[in-house]
């Protein structure tokens, strides 16, 4: 089925060369030009069931061969069949397309806004759609701030959490600034906002709790921004993911530029422990070592009941690679990227790799 559709699209492309958008893949929706997924390793009966969510981007104009003709949020089955095209539902740049439970119902969240390239962060808000794909509400940054695209979670039925990146002017001579112009640093915030009013209920600031001296991407290296203005700002922390245990109000943060995962107390804002990077509180077992990671998640529900308390299970994606913003070769800490599941013993301060998932072919992402 998927294959015959791919074939049909190839034929259509041949037949329709010169037309910018529609590709007639769906007779009832000739306006849609749906990106075709080429599934090279099909899902089996042993694959966890689920749908594929993604937000392909057109960074170039149509018909240049880069990106889809119609960027937006899409849902597919794991066989590559289209479930939903969100083209035109949100602005041209969409990100972080997720499913949540909110007020007892399944909802979709989609970040929409603009993208600061090459620094890689967003300025926008999150649109929430109900289970009939109707816009329910837009959740915005509070306190006259724009939300970033990296993380969005509901804390409960009345509040949501998102990342906010706030450029600030500070004296950075202690971190190697060579001119007074090198004074812009990016504060990474988690904002908890009221989902009805967008009022800020709580906020956490990386600069209040984590010294930039611990970063792996120093100001001098230029690899996390030059710090010369509010867009070329020094991204010393780069919080690209967080997770929360709403019952205990504890957070797990991924700081990409610091190659560190932090546990943080939401009541006091204090750091509880650090895994990886320059000041790890844990001894890292074989294969745990990581850098420039994404997608940190808590998996306390997988713990054996009797070991709860001192043991925690987390997962993350260890990219082991970072684009060299200063123009050199890609920074690399391992020859391949991998998803990792790690068991932490928070008393003995040990970290053990319990599962690793490498991309077929062992490539870097
Ligand atoms: C799908 O990908 C495989 C492996 O890269 C390639 O050989 C094949 O030609 C692709 N198929 C289509 C329809 O693009
Ligand atoms: C999956 O399918 C294969 C081949 O049909 C079969 O041998 C296997 O037992 C199945 N596994 C499960 C978990 O159903
Ligand atoms: C610093 O900023 C000033 C004013 O914006 C500008 O004139 C000067 O060229 C800048 N210096 C450097 C070293 O970038
Ligand atoms: C910020 O600095 C970068 C690097 O020097 C420069 O390319 C860019 O134009 C500047 N942006 C603004 C808004 O001044
Ligand atoms: C990050 O910094 C720590 C401490 O300097 C160092 O041990 C580690 O090798 C660095 N990682 C990378 C990938 O640069």
From TrEMBL:
Keywords: Signal. InterPro entries: Arylsulfate_ST, ASST-like, Quino_amine_DH_bsu. Residues 1-22 form the signal peptide. Pfam families: Arylsulfotran_2. This is Arylsulfotransferase.
